[in-house]
Write a structure and sequence with these properties.
alpha+beta; binds coenzyme A; Aminopeptidase; 143 residues
């Protein structure tokens, strides 16, 4: 599985992958473009035709926040997300981060299992953080 840094020209394809991955919770094309342009972001894509998935982290000082991770349903369970996560972690460390943080819905079992398998630990719960009253788990991994 190869990943590469996303370019501005990837914006429309990333929005399409995001829609496939997140459905009604997808980001708008404008939100994806903003993410690509935002300061301190590291955005990677899992290459393929069409793109298989994408991940973005925001690095600030010694902390990196995973802002997005999505894989197209047809490309799931083939370690695409794991590769994206490992590669953004390496890149975040190179950019100075020493820990990576994320928020995940406590009922998102595939994502939770992936994060637990890749060394993230739960450090906090944000009650009723998501629409519908679902809690968010805050997870952290040292880099
Ligand atoms: C969560 C998501 C990114 C996982 O992508 P993926 O490419 O299928 O994940 P991987 O194949 O790299 O799987 C890595 C690990 O995740 C877990 N996993 C993946 N799919 C799973 C599933 N359907 N059920 C349970 N665990 C699953 C497994 O632990 C797997 O490890 P294994 O390969 O040793 O079994 C993908 O399901 C997705 O895009 N979901 C919708 C968007 C989303 O929820 N993003 C995360 C927001 S916090």
């Amino acid at each position: 599985m190869t990943t590469r840094t996303a370019a501005p020209v990837d914006a429309a394809a990333l929005a399409e992958v995001d829609a496939a991955a997140f459905g009604t919770h997808a980001w708008s094309a404008a939100a994806v473009e903003s993410e690509l342009a935002a300061h301190g972001r590291i955005v990677l894509v899992a290459d393929g035709t069409p793109l298989k998935g994408w991940a973005s982290v925001a690095v600030s000082g010694d902390a990196a926040d995973l802002t997005r991770l999505g894989v197209r349903p047809q490309a799931r369970n083939a370690e695409v997300a794991r590769s994206l996560l490992e590669d953004v972690a390496v890149r975040a460390r190179e950019a100075g981060a020493r820990r990576i943080l994320l928020e995940v819905a406590e009922d998102n079992h595939p994502a939770l299992r992936l994060y637990e398998d890749t060394g993230f630990v739960r450090i906090a719960t944000r009650r009723r953080y998501y629409p519908g009253g679902v809690d968010a788990l805050v997870m952290e991994r040292a880099l």
